[in-house]
Automatic annotation (TrEMBL):
Signal peptide coordinates: none
The protein's name in its UniProt record: Acetate kinase
Broad enzyme group: transferase
Species of the source: Thermoflavimicrobium dichotomicum
Family: Belongs to the acetokinase family.
Binding site for ATP: K17, H211, I212, G213, N214, G215, D286, M287, R288, G334, V335, G336, E337, N338
Taxon lineage: Bacteria, Bacillati, Bacillota, Bacilli, Bacillales
Pathway in which this enzyme or protein is active: Metabolic intermediate biosynthesis; acetyl-CoA biosynthesis; acetyl-CoA from acetate: step 1/2
Cofactor: how and how many bound: Mg(2+). Can also accept Mn(2+).
Residues marked Transition state stabilizer (site): H183, R244
Gene behind this protein: ackA
Pfam family, one: Acetate_kinase
Cofactor names: Mg(2+); Mn(2+)
Length: 405
């Protein structure tokens, strides 16, 4: 289909991230963000390829107004890249939680909206803003096909023994308490890119994908399908992250609540916003700050880095066992793509699996797909920049083309 423009929207409680693609070439026409929605000092940012970035400040009280301002900019004579809203053939919406309802991207209809609403309790900070974005986009771009792409969908292929918790089964039957996993769009994208980079069928590969950013997760991918992942019912489970604690003894929660007289909201805030790298180092959740401080001898920063790397390495090892092997190890997202030190230290004690790192390739600072293992390494170690927005756009394009047949 010629000239297909797809708008990608990712809504937070007070923000809208957006990206407009021309899918015939998979090129980005424009991208930006609306921040501080609900205030009289909201900020709109727009970046168009080949032009100076635009920043505006104005009153934006809700997502409807925010998206209206975005569309006005995209269509404006001075700043725009399209002449009318009719050019937008599809809108891809990032939705964090799809529960057990969705194992793939879907066209949004009343039943899909209702299912997203029913999963709000599983992701209250995300799914409700996602619905606000869907409402705004459907009202302002009624001619477009609206597609929901779920962070959890890719992990719906996990076997029952991997996603069930060893709790009374009634809790699963009544409340769907189970492991769902997140970052699915990213894990799917980088695993497909890895297979293409290596020129090997993805069905032949056992891939371990490390999406390491402020939030972080590892996925075990066999034959192109997720068989396990480190995040669980919520994004709190799994690895030590920027501000999240990851796996801990659950008995710690009531113990600390009783000793510190914390409310449920306070202990949730502690685990989600004040733990991880920030909690251990006492300095920052930013890996760049942690690495610099550790190099200068800051003991707590060094401990935070040691813990962070150790926990990633442990999960990788467990997934080698889960898949009975590993052909490819991928590093992606903010830390995974940019921290040669983290990659080096993760791989250093994985030599038992035949991993040999090419120090020169690992040290290169390039925003491109590349191999960082040696030619004699038994495992291909790759850096693959993630592109969740492009993955969402591809899913939307696929569905538009399907209904156009």
């Amino acid at each position: 289909m010629l000239g297909m423009k797809v708008l990608i929207i990712n809504c937070g409680s007070s923000s809208i991230k957006y990206e407009l693609f021309e899918m015939t070439t998979e090129s980005v026409l424009a991208e930006g963000v609306v921040e501080r929605i609900g205030t009289d000092s909201a900020i709109i940012k727009l970046r168009v390829t080949g032009r100076d970035p635009l920043v505006q400040t104005s009153e934006i009280l809700d997502h409807q107004v925010g998206l209206s301002r975005v569309l006005s900019l995209l269509m404006s004579r001075e700043q725009g890249v399209i002449q009318s809203a009719e050019e937008v053939k599809a809108v891809g919406h990032r939705v964090v939680h799809g529960g057990e309802y969705f194992s793939e991207a879907v066209i949004i209809d009343p039943k899909v909206r209702q299912a997203i609403r029913q999963t709000i309790d599983l992701a209250p900070l995300h799914n409700l803003p996602n619905l606000l974005g869907i409402d705004a986009a459907q009202s302002q771009l009624p001619q477009a096909v609206h597609v929901a792409v779920f962070d959890t969908a890719f992990h719906q292929t996990m076997p029952t023994y991997a996603y069930m918790y060893p709790l009374p089964r009634v809790l699963y039957e009544k409340y769907k308490i189970r492991r769902y996993g997140f970052h699915g769009t990213s894990h799917k994208y980088v695993s497909q890119r890895a297979a293409a980079f290596l020129k090997r069928p993805i069905e032949e590969l056992k891939i371990i994908s490390c999406h390491i950013g402020n939030g972080a997760s590892v996925a075990a991918i066999r034959q192109g399908k997720s068989v396990d992942t480190s995040m669980g019912m919520t994004p709190l489970e799994g690895l030590m992250m920027g501000t999240r604690c990851g796996d801990i003894d659950p008995a710690i929660v009531p113990y600390v609540m009783a000793r510190e007289e914390l409310t449920l909201a306070e202990v949730k805030s502690m685990m989600n916003k004040h733990s991880g790298l920030l909690g251990i180092s006492g300095l920052s959740e930013d890996m760049r700050v942690i690495e610099e401080a550790a190099e200068q001898g800051h003991a707590q920063a060094k401990l935070a880095l040691d813990m962070y790397v150790y926990k990633i390495r442990k999960v990788i090892g467990s997934y080698v066992a889960a898949m009975n092997g590993m052909d490819v190890l991928i590093f992606t997202a903010g830390v995974g793509e940019n921290s040669s030190l983290v990659r080096e230290r993760v791989c250093k004690n994985l030599t038992c699996f035949g991993i040999e790192l090419d120090d020169g390739q690992n040290q290169l600072r390039r925003k491109e797909e590349r191999r960082i293992s040696t030619s004699s390494s038994k495992v291909e170690v790759l850096v693959i920049p993630t592109n969740e927005e492009l993955m969402i756009a591809r899913e939307a394009k696929k569905l538009v083309e399907k209904i156009s047949l």
